[in-house]
Amino acid sequence: MKRQRRDPVQAIRRAEITTALAALRGCPVRRALEIGAGDGFHAEVLEGIASVLVLTDVDEGRLARCRHPRRVVCRAEQLPFRAASFDLVTSSMVWEHLQGRVTATTETGRILAEGGRVLLLVPTRIWKTLQLCLHWTELPSRIRARLWQRSEARQARGNSTGELGTSNAPPGPEGPCPDGHARPGLQHRLAAWLVPPVHGTYGTHWEEWRAYGRQAWLDSFRGHFELEASGPLLFYSPYLWMGGRLLSVRRFLGSLGLGATQYFLFRRAGRPTGDAPND
Q1: Residue 188: per-residue pLDDT
Q2: pLDDT, tens digit, for every residue of 69-101?
Q3: Residues 6+ apart with CB under 8 A from 213
Q4: 20-44 confidence digits (pLDDT tens)
């Protein structure tokens, strides 16, 4: 019988959330919410600690692939739940992608019950440094993908010309972009190949690197929650050379301060007020 290959990203993320949840120290959780649940691969772990689990994501397509029964399509900046609805709110590798991080943090505090907890998993500067330094290792696969795309585009243009006598395919590299804008010059095209895109919603790589520091994350949540626990998680590069293997080695390297991600466990001290516009 052929062994089913395990998704390396899911293997890493499950190991991360399992390690981070240990910081709860067995605290009972009646209602839990995951923000940015994607296709729900954390649900199996979270269901083990919560009586009721609700998953949310802004991407309706991804969330539809999740088999969990309680799913809500919404933005983190506008959560459609009553105040003090949850004992635990968790999120993994989502906060850096939000357009309104402050608004999402305020919303999280609003729906959190008094004494409830927020467990956030976010990238570190180690992750960002590896993204920038090891980007070149992805060039061969990107070149293969680009060549395949061009081959498919040529075939599509050929089929279009053969059937209709004229081609409606997008213009070639020398022509304008379909939207009428000029195509980027050689310098910009080379930069796009040699430098990875900014991972989240920050303006530059430098801004993102600074924001991924432990103190920078703490400063962004100051005034909203009280820190209860924090720590580094697993070591890995964004490119996952070794897939989802060597988890014990990754944990060990993370314990030495080389974690690509880190967790923060916050506690809601005050009493949230107000309801969302839609229940």
Answers
A1: 60
A2: 899 999 999 999 999 999 999 999 999 999 999
A3: 124, 125
A4: 999 998 788 999 999 999 888 888 8
- pLDDT of 193-220, one tens digit each? 677 889 999 999 999 999 999 999 999 9
Mean pLDDT, residues 39-58: 90
Which residue, 96, 100, 117, 107, is CA-closest to 32? 117
| Residue 81 neighbours by CB under 8 Å, 6+ apart | 33, 54, 111, 276, 279
Q: Give the single-character DSSP code of 20.
A: H
Using alpha carbons, select from 122, 136, 64, 124 the residue that is nearest to residue 94: 122
Residue 19's φ and ψ, nearest 5 degrees, are: -65, -45
User: DSSP letters of 170-186?
Assistant: PP-TTS--TTSPPPP-H
> Collapsing DSSP states into helix, strand and coil, what is residue 233?
coil
Kindly state the tokens that stand for 102: 């402050």
Q: Give the span between the Cα atoms of 105 and 269, in whole angstroms.
A: 14
Cβ atoms of 77 and 229 closer than 8 Å: no
- Name the nearest CA neighbour of 265 among 27, 8, 13: 27
Token readout for 15 is 């190991």
